[in-house]
What does this fold into?
Amino acid sequence: MDPSNPPKEDQPEEPRYLDFPHLPNDAAHDGKPLLNKYSTTITRDHAFPGAQAMLYAAGVPDQEIDSMHLLDLGKTVKTAVQKQGMLAWQYNTIGVSDAITIGSEAVGYSKLLRKPINIATCYEAAGAYIYNTLTQPDDGGDKSKTKDEIMEDIERHACPGAGACGGMYTANTMATAIETMGLSLPGSSSNPATSPSKMRECGKAAEAIKVCMEKGIKPRDLLTKRSFENALVITMALGGSTNGVVHFLAMAATAGVALELDDFQRVSNKVPFIANLAPSGKYFMADLYEIGGVPSVQKLLIAAGLLDGDIPTVT
It folds into this structure.
């Protein structure tokens, strides 16, 4: 995968160990060896504000608000599965956060993200920080803050709680699409992360699991051209992220479903953009939840003849 050599650009490289930027192996502080030789790359100064914001949100090093509620949600699902008379086994999986990897050398693995790119407010603030133009907004805040204090305040509060980014960014784009494809429970993508509705959803997940096992419903059975069409419709209606293009094409290729770029344009031409959600609008997913969530949008689109309401689902 050599971007400087087009003929070899898509050819996989020979397996090799990566040499990530890090402090010298003999780095020490007060005579003691430093244990954070690698992590210091993203935690020192303000070169990786998105990474620091995500780490603060995860409780590192001293924040009270975090995203560890997923463990509790998992326990709720486990208990509900057991009540269905089935064996429940809870285990961990890898979590990936592009907010931590964006701007790092690892970005080179993605053909679309070969070069470090800046996203989100943290990174925009970082640009102002670098050019020494970052100042306290005229919102009644402390105008005497230094640029370092302003940057640290942004990093500490950019991720105020559990759950995905509130707008139609990648996470909510894919969550709403997956729900509309029938791969998750109704309302799943718009139920707030720490709400009672999310807990009730976890309880209902056990019922869906049993239905899928009894009827032999597998993800591949639900990944059809009709369901992908639904995914494109809900994405266009809500103003989803263009990252969805990459993900939908990858999902379709894996499932053996014919999906092309022309399909995105065709659906876009016929489906109106009806949402007013961030980043292009002023509302957030929690606001959509208050007026019925994604199911309310789905009903509207079905009534308009734009969404297929007869596809099989996990329910």
The longest strand covers residues 28-29.
